[in-house]
Amino acid sequence: MRRLRACLGAAAAVTLAAAGSTALVAGHASGATTALSDRWYAAAPYLMPLDNDPPDPAAIMDATGLKAFQLAFVLAPNGGGCTPTWGGTAPVASDTAVQSAIGAIRAKGGDVSVSIGGYGGTKLGQACADPASTAAAYQQVITKYGLHAIDFDLEEPEYENSAAIRNEIGAAKILQRNNPGLYVSVTTAGTADGTGWFGKQMLLEAKSQGFTPNNFSIMPFDGGFNSAASQTGALTNFNSVLQSTFGWDQATAYAHEGFSGMNGRSDTGEYFTQADFQTVLDYATSHHMDRFTFWSLNRDRQCTPADNGGRTSGTCSSVAQNAWDFAKYSVKFAGVTPPSTTPTPTPTPTPASCKPAWSASAVYTQGNEVSYNQHNWKAKWWTQNEVPGASEWGPWQDEGAC
Description:
The protein is α/β, with parallel strands linked by helices. Helix content is 33%, strand content 18%.
């Protein structure tokens, strides 16, 4: 779904490197940093750091209070192989430009997640032989940048390849196990029914492998959506899909559900304004959803007048706005107190000792206690040969299990 990409010009690359190089301190050389709260990683909007006229993250942070960015996208090399690159062309192993940008963000108290996959290009799940080798490629990214969060953007054409999805889900499970505390989101296409057949197959693959990420997020755009109401309807339906797939109740499903929108004009000419974002944000927070993000910060600025409303751009929204209007909704989501994703279980009461067993021949008066059918009972009045619990209005008061 994320179709808007442009080649990085040399000037943009130089500008990006210069913006971050002075802020990259020795302590960040390996990417190490203190993690933000999960709520921030759940609110991180997508940013292409090497394409689509990348904006200055520091300026966005100063203008909005945003702290987290979802950097996109890590892919397999265009020429083949199972090693991570940015956009299929820039090897992660030799990267300095993205690392410098990350350093600048962290120097201001923020952090990043990295998104892998997206629309187009060859994904590592397609190029690597198995889940272990796919995970090893992604581990290079986590180690290089000291990541506390990662996003698996699984969409076409990769999610139509069952072997590739098996590799991606298996890799996600391995990374989750080998990097304790790693925040993992899985993003896929949205439809009016929540997600399509391939999205549902991906969920079944996750279930079969016993993998549960922090959230499964859908992208309700580019699928005939025309309003926030159509998006919240898709989120409601996706909640039902999560319930039926994993056996969760509604609240648990919402606690593992996310929204990934597209600000302004979508690839297919849908329009999502600031008011639409507010409506979906209200839905997400009132249902205690785990994630609220959007594509993308590169587009979170107004086009020139000639472009507004006339085309879909990778560098502006094609709706009337002030710069970074949509990022402010991510900041609002991050500021909402998150629900507990692991509710404290109610302690199981310790059963009381059983009273003397009830006898059909004995006479009982008010206050006498007996046990019957592994429950204790107290007589309400004189009784004989009336079985405890036989009648709601009978002479026995249930005092609980014993």
